[in-house]
Amino acid sequence: MDDNDLFAALPLVPKPADAPSPATTPKAEAPRPAATPRANNTSSESEYGASSIRVLEGLEPVRMRPGMYIGGTDEKALHHLFAEVIDNSMDEAVAGHADFIDVHLDAEGFLTVTDNGRGIPVELHPQVPGKSTLEVIMTKLHAGGKFDGKAYETSGGLHGVGVSVVNALSDLLEVEVARNRRLYRQRFSRGVPLGGLEELGDVHNRRGTRVRFHPDPQIFGDHAKFDPGRIFRMARSKAYLFGGVEIRWSCDPGMVLEGGDIPEKAVFHFPGGLKDYLAATLGKEFTVTREIFAGKTEKTGGHGAMEWAITWYGGDPMVHSYCNTIPTAEGGTHEAGLRIALTKGLKNYAELTQNKRAKEITTDDVMISAVGMLSVFIREPEFVGQTKDKLATVEAQRLVENALRDPFDHYLADNPNEAANCSTG
Questions:
Q1: What's the half-sphere exposure (Cβ side, CA atoms, 13 Å) at 421?
Q2: Looking at CB atoms within 10 Å, which of 39, 84, 216, 408 has the fewest?
Q3: Which of 251, 268, 285 is the last residue of a domain?
Q4: Domain of residue 340, residue span
């Protein structure tokens, strides 16, 4: 079968029929209701005065409206607490300051995340007299080191609210920092310090931050607890997204069966990145292309760097995307760039091979059986909402489209049979 025969099998998505023209006769304007005399509101106005306006202090807004910060109080929101903590450790790893992260879930429901990064600063903060920087970070919204781009070139944390939100929604949280060969500790309950910063003495062969926390039953319910299998998979996915980090998983032995046959201990380190991730996700699933289209770009400072892995198979379309290791479940501008690059590449290839149906190929045709993963690193990305489910950075579309253009052209030229299957799957 030649290329024209293969492209002839393309399941083109039918175009919608032209909509009928609207009537040209203007509609008569509906008569406006007569104005109603204003009622006497003296009583209601006196009830609404200065004393009605409440000023929320510290982390009170988080506890009063948790949905604004973690998307709700359901199971997804509960596990978002873990995402906020491990994202801080991943930022240290991506910045080159950490190379391992420990994740441990114990029988009491406490989750502990430890990294060997630089450690949260502990000295007194210049803007908040008498408070350590650690306490400021943990108890104040919009306090963080990711606003000016000096401490991190690219990061998942943007607004300085992540770990303080976790603190607000935990009935007990403990932070240990090993920094400059000294060990420090501070404990909190529902966002309030249980004491000052403790200096525990000298420490050798250790550095970084350890956060141990328990979700507050007042927020999530008396029976809410972390799902071991879900935490396990979330931790593993982070290791796939950055080959320079090793993530060590452990849990209480009694949780092995509870988590869906997860191991008690595991080490995740995937230098192969997204190509390995996609292959592991597909398992023995049938694919119509033998070779995964995969690659990565490296950029000085990290801005604009990306990695991708795409193939075509017999199932429903599925693309998992990430920005600065944050999963963007609702896609966004980076996914738009991916779709545009693949569509343009296949259309150009079809034209070069003189395929008669080249002009009819649409994005829906190309993506109808595509499965893939896309990870981008962008300085100061813009997300839709605090939970960062969708990327809104306009520049991301252009960056992805430009990065994929030449590699995809070469992939199609080097694999003519794969090129046909990409759009006929």
A1: 18
A2: 39
A3: 268
A4: 273-422
Rounded Cα gap, residues 116 and 97, in angstroms: 8
Per-residue pLDDT of 168-226, as tens digits, reads: 999 999 999 999 999 999 999 999 999 999 999 999 889 999 999 999 999 999 999 99
Residue 55 lies in a domain: no
Phi/psi of residue 108, each to 5°? -85, 0
From 229, 252, 268, give the residue that closes a domain: 268
Mark whether 129 and 253 lie in a shared domain. yes
Measured CA to CA, the distance from residue 290 to residue 89 in angstroms comes to 36
* Contact of 182 with 191, CB cutoff 8 Å: no
Site of tokens 């300051």: 97
For 299: left if phi > 0, alpha if psi spans -120 to 50, otherwise beta; the answer is beta
| CATH number for position 87 | 3.30.565.10
Give per-residue pLDDT as tens, 242-255.
988 999 999 999 88
CA distance 136 to 196: 12
Whether residue 420 is predicted with pLDDT greater than 70 in this model: the reply is no
Give the count of domains, the chain: 2
Q: Are 284 and 245 found together in one domain? A: no
Residue among 317, 319, 315 at smallest CA distance from 331: 319
Here the CATH number for the domain that contains residue 296 is 3.30.230.10
Q: How many CB atoms lie within 10 A of CB 358?
A: 18
pLDDT digits (tens, 9 = 90+) for 261-319: 789 999 999 988 999 999 988 888 888 888 899 999 987 667 889 999 999 988 888 99
Residue 419's pLDDT is what? 65
- Asked if residue 169 lies in contact with residue 81, where contact means CB atoms within 8 angstroms, the answer is yes
At 46, the pLDDT band (50, 70, 90 cuts) reads: low
- Cβ–Cβ < 8 Å for 124, 107: no
